Amino acid sequence: MAKNMPEACGLGAALEVIGGKWKTFILWEIHFGPIRFGELKRRVTGISEKMLIQNLREMEADGIIAREMFHEIPPRVEYSVTELGRTLNDAVTPLATWGKVYSKRIMETLEGG
Amino acid sequence: MAKNMPEACGLGAALEVIGGKWKTFILWEIHFGPIRFGELKRRVTGISEKMLIQNLREMEADGIIAREMFHEIPPRVEYSVTELGRTLNDAVTPLATWGKVYSKRIMETLEGG
DNA sequence: TCCGAAACTTACCTTCTGGTGCGTACCCTA
DNA sequence: TAGGGTACGCACCAGAAGGTAAGTTTCGGA
Q1: Which CATH number is B23's domain given?
Q2: At B70, is the pLDDT very low, low, confident or very high (cuts 50, 70, 90)?
Q3: The pLDDT value given to residue A2
Q4: Is the pLDDT of residue B2 over 50?
Q5: Are strands A35-36 and A76-81 parallel, antiparallel or unpaired?
Q6: Any chain B CB within 8 A of the CB of A107?
Q7: Which range among A68-72, A102-106, B77-81 shows the weakest confidence by mean pLDDT?
Q8: What count of other Cβ atoms lies within 10 Å of the Cβ of residue B64?
Q9: Is residue A21 domain-resident?
Q10: Is residue A28 within 8 Å of A99, Cβ to Cβ?
């Protein structure tokens, strides 16, 4: 997305990193602390394994999360946010807050009229 | 998007409003002040008329921009941000800043290695 | 011997997003 | 009469995003 855009304001780049249906939720769940693949799958309700892995790979490539493999049986993999991921999470917080307020506003509008 | 999501953190709602390829750029161009359809089309480089109109309608429905029609010949329509739109623009600013820094980091990484 | 768990991988299919191009009403200019 | 500008609407189409379902490897347990 926005590969050919006049830089505008940096939003394009940011949305490439946390855009899509799932990444924000994934980042949110991981930001509490290291978490296993299976646990993540249970927490991010509704996501398919394919999508979870695909998104995790992309987020890893973007450098916002880190993957650690433990050579155990059964296999264990843990995901955690990187320093960059933490800054992204911080940058995204105001937007999350806005989203909450906005949702509330919508609800009130629907109730009120 | 995220209609059936556990509220998580409000980000889902926010991304429904400024998600997609163009809305951020449109909001950015409008936030400087009222702007006509044609001017907007010229500023948001690469957008098609269909997409511009479609996005404007959605943003209007979401209450972040306002449309004012002047019954003149040739027709004139101006778009401006609402108070809610301004708050969204503010909420999105940190993310834009992050995107800029991130882009720079990527460039440096590419140059350095 | 079959099953289940973990963390994937692969193939296939559907839905959504965005793009292209044409048509519209109205007026002005040439 | 022809063409251009404004702000759209509509139909069709391609590609990306996302969903579904199955297979893989290794082990322990019934």
Answers
A1: 1.10.10.10
A2: very high
A3: 38
A4: no
A5: antiparallel
A6: no
A7: A102-106
A8: 25
A9: yes
A10: no
